Recover the amino acids of this structure.
């Protein structure tokens, strides 16, 4: 018996797996999420479409408009009404893609702290979309500058409130739209469902609310509530309109409220459901 024990002891020792010198950190998790995001073709297709739509629509608007006093920056940021959908859809498929392939199990196995997974994915999506949008809007501004200049409507870059701030606000709004898509992705786990919910909130619901503009004063509360929808709040912070919509600070609070509410709901569902 002792001989058998002695013979198997080296085998037992050799079967031990040495401890890895690497430890999971939040920074490494951010890097992992960035790799997952940037190595998927749908991400770069979305980025390319956003760039083409933004620059193309901006140039069309700049060519068509011939109004003295027209703010040239309006032509640059107007395409956000279309590109916001791509930002939300990108956020949704970044989450639902992992559920459809089963990769989410590996992600949650590597980091069982699900709030950390949600935070890492949200931060990467938000920063990525902000940077992409900032570059895109600047490219659109450069593209339309010769057109606007020929009509005496050139963008006055010395006036930050009518040049730099709208571009930054539009980029922040695009990041918010992406986070709304992330929240719906975790809530619904279905690509079709998350995309439909994102499009409904960002695009369809504002149209429905605007239909009550011709209704009587009894329906004014719907129009007032509609000012707090993500797209309407974004319009209020990009180029504030006196007497219309929200003031800038309230608009940013509304956008932050949508992000916080979505992340809390996603965190609650992520914690309570099995992968």
């Amino acid at each position: 018996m002792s001989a058998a024990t002695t013979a198997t002891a080296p085998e037992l020792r050799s079967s031990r797996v040495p401890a890895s010198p690497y430890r999971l950190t939040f920074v490494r998790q951010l890097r992992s999420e960035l790799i997952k995001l940037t190595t998927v073709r749908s991400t770069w297709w979305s980025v390319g479409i956003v760039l083409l739509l933004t620059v193309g629509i901006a140039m069309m608007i700049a060519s068509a408009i011939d109004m003295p006093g027209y703010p040239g920056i309006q032509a640059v940021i107007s395409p956000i009404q279309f590109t916001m959908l791509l930002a939300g859809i990108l956020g949704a498929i970044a989450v639902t893609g992992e559920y459809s392939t089963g990769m989410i199990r590996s992600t949650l196995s590597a980091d069982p702290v699900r709030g950390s997974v949600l935070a890492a994915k949200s931060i990467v999506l938000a920063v990525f979309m902000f940077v992409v949008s900032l570059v895109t809007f600047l490219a659109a501004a450069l593209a339309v500058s010769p057109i606007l200049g020929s009509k005496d409507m050139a963008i006055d870059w010395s006036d930050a409130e009518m040049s730099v701030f709208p571009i930054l606000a539009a980029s922040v709004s695009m990041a918010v739209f992406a986070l709304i898509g992330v929240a719906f992705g975790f809530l619904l786990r279905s690509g079709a469902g998350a995309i439909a919910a994102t499009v409904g909130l960002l695009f369809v619901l504002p149209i429905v609310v605007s239909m009550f503009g011709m209704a009587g004063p009894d329906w004014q509360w719907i129009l007032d509530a509609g000012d707090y929808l993500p797209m309407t709040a974004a319009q209020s912070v990009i180029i504030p309109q006196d007497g219309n919509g929200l003031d800038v600070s309230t608009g940013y609070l509304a956008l932050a409220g949508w992000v916080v509410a979505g992340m809390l709901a996603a965190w609650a569902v992520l914690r309570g459901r099995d992968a």
Notes: The first helix runs from residue 2 to 14. The CA atoms of residues 58 and 78 lie 7 Å apart.
